[in-house]
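Late entry, 4'-deoxy-4'-aminopyridoxal-5'-phosphate complex.
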Amino acid sequence: MPSREDITYFGAGPALLPTDVLETAAASLLNYKDTGLGIAEHSHRSELATNIINEAKADLASYLDIPEDYEVLFMQGGGTGEFSATAYNLVGAWVERKKKAIFGDLPGAEANEPGLMQQLKTTIDKDLKLDYIITGGWSQKAAAEAARLLGPEHVNIVADAREINDGKFGKIPDESTWKLSEDAALVYWCDNETVDGVEFPAFPKCLEPKADGSGPIVVADMSSNILSRRVPVRNFSVIFFGAQKNLGSTGVTVVIIKKDLLPPKLQQPSASLMRKLALPIPPIILQYEIIAKNNSLYNTLSIFDVYVAGQVLKKLLNTYPNKAAGQEAVSDKKAQLIYGALEAHPDVYKIIPDKAVRSRMNICFRVTKGGDVDGSEKAFLKESTAQGLTGLKGHRSVGGIRASSYNSIPMKGAEALAKFIEEFAQA
Ligand code: PMP
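Prediction complete; structure with ligand written out below:
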């Protein structure tokens, strides 16, 4: 029977967690801070729970350099829940802006001004657009959810990477070809496509804010690369990520949101207005202003999962005095090791995505030894597993091999995989 030390798990999520964090968490499950009660048993309304939330928020803000005018929310519903939440909340914000522009501050204007109401409806029919940049399976799913909630006529596909790559993901179309809407409710992308191994190399130039801070309302899914590099937070309105790949255990989803999108700066439109406009009303649990107002405790939150995330953040802060930049250097090095081993044997391995957009987190490739892809991938998986290198099977939708080199994969795990890749090619 293998022990933890014998295994490096390269699965795409849930992913490896540091053993010392798990040991502390396991002890805390039984008896947290000598209270005689485990952390998953304490009330989410206790002072102890509030402290865990506030510390995790402060440590995340410190690690990622999140400015003061951003809020951190712990939510439930995973990355998938955020596909819906981002659409609901940013459509609400867009409608509120348009309503202000049309109605001004007229009290009770909604009910009494049918002419203005008609004008708002016409503006929505004509101008409401949500922009999606599709570079892989997850951004595709997010765009599909927006189309399901609002109707495809309100979803603008800015670019679809498959159109420049023979119907497959693996490239990011050049910004000059993007078709952005005039005044989109959001511009959305997935920073790292977990299934397809495509990562944005940098923040797109055309979406950078102007000197006065105004600019497109940018939303990014960073579920599979958060904490692995520096993030220009100010360029984003919303960043979200599930915890289960780079941060902690499955069960919490983090949202970093610009306070401009929350009260007192901005209030979501009333449910009755949205009904009149035939627009969807978000379930209350997906409404950012409700979660923010309650410091993430509108309803019962898994404090245990916030605790695990908090412990991982403390470990990162202790390990890297230069914070995200420190982990970025390590992530780059691990990816270089693995890609380097693959590139050394082009006759045996075919890396899927284009070099310019290769993910540092999810390294996707095919094994083509002797022209027998199926047989050689089976052999690759069998032999790597025998050496304790596990979780390497590609996503069921695309096949092949995928090595997820998340933050908790130690350098020696990446070195062992690179060595195995080399030896398998030579055998
Ligand atoms: N976005 C990305 C980039 C993902 O990798 C995943 C899950 N692998 C999701 C969203 C969906 O997350 P969840 O399973 O937490 O809903």
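The CA atoms of residues 245 and 286 lie 22 Å apart. Will revisit in the morning.
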